[in-house]
Design a protein that fits this description.
265 residues; elongated; Rossmann fold; alpha/beta; 17 strands
């Protein structure tokens, strides 16, 4: 291993990769040699780039970070640092294992600690034992996930404010979200925020008991809905507590009627 740590970052969220890029620029002795946006891309990048460290998101659109680890065939095996917004993955197994865990939104000092730990591990234990321990930890984490009482959802979003920083947006403050080409606009009482992504992706990351899709381009917090109206024959619109009027898609009308029935009962 060279003195300068060669790092591959894997995350299916462009904003998360950008944040990692900015943080790593603040550190000495590290080099970001590549980025990947999914499991298959990550495996190919490890094979070609042979990084020292893998900064690996746990949940991605084509699988999980666990899948990546279980399919790694690199020799030597890179050190693994899992990265996720879901804190239920952070179990005590990380404390003394060959892997570490960093919770999103990643803080500079926490990432520095994880990289220092990885550097020490790379320089000490033999590769064979590291690989065996790594796979054992991944299996333990999979079991932990299976035992978890239901899915976990994100509680906050970190959205780029400008070229120098990010805004923290609590999911509890989101009233509705709409798509704008390759971006989505997140609306809160305090204002709106534009972030790269899709309605479908965000819908999978927030609690479905709290949010309702009313249109292929619109996601709404249920508690933000004041009324559901039919101003014209065949047309449905949703009136929010804020006074905002949003058109509802015909294919989503059934869920709206179910919501009305639940509130009326």
């Amino acid at each position: 291993m060279t003195e300068r740590l060669r790092i591959l970052a894997v995350d299916d969220e462009p904003l998360a990769l950008r944040r990692l890029r900015l943080l790593l620029r603040e550190m000495s002795g590290v080099e970001l040699v590549g980025e990947a946006g999914g499991c298959e891309e990550a495996l190919a990048a490890v094979h070609h780039l042979r990084p020292d460290i893998l900064l690996l998101d746990i949940q991605m659109r084509d699988g999980t970070g666990f899948d990546v680890v279980e399919n790694l065939a690199a020799d030597p095996m890179p050190a693994i640092i899992f990265v996720s917004a879901f804190d239920h993955y952070g179990v005590k197994a990380f404390d003394a294992s060959v892997v570490d865990y960093v919770l999103k939104p990643i803080q500079l000092e926490r990432l520095r600690v994880a990289l220092d730990k990885a550097r020490t591990r790379l320089a000490s234990a033999d590769t064979g034992n590291q690989v065996d321990e790594l796979r054992a930890v991944v299996e333990a984490l999979r079991a932990k996930v299976r035992e978890a009482d239901g899915p976990r959802y994100e509680t906050e979003l970190w959205i780029r404010k400008n070229v120098t920083g990010f805004s923290r947006v609590s999911v509890d403050n989101i009233e509705w979200v709409c798509s704008e080409d390759d971006y989505i606009r997140v609306h809160t009482a305090a204002g709106s925020y534009l972030m790269r992504g899709s309605i479908r992706n965000l819908e999978s990351r927030v609690d479905p008991s709290e949010f309702l899709r009313i249109h292929r381009r619109t996601l709404v917090r249920k508690s933000a809905i004041r009324e559901v109206r039919s101003p014209r024959l065949g047309k449905v619109e949703v009136l929010l507590q804020s006074g905002e009027r949003l058109p509802a898609g015909r294919v989503y009308a059934k869920k709206l009627r179910q919501l009305i029935g639940e509130r009326a009962s």
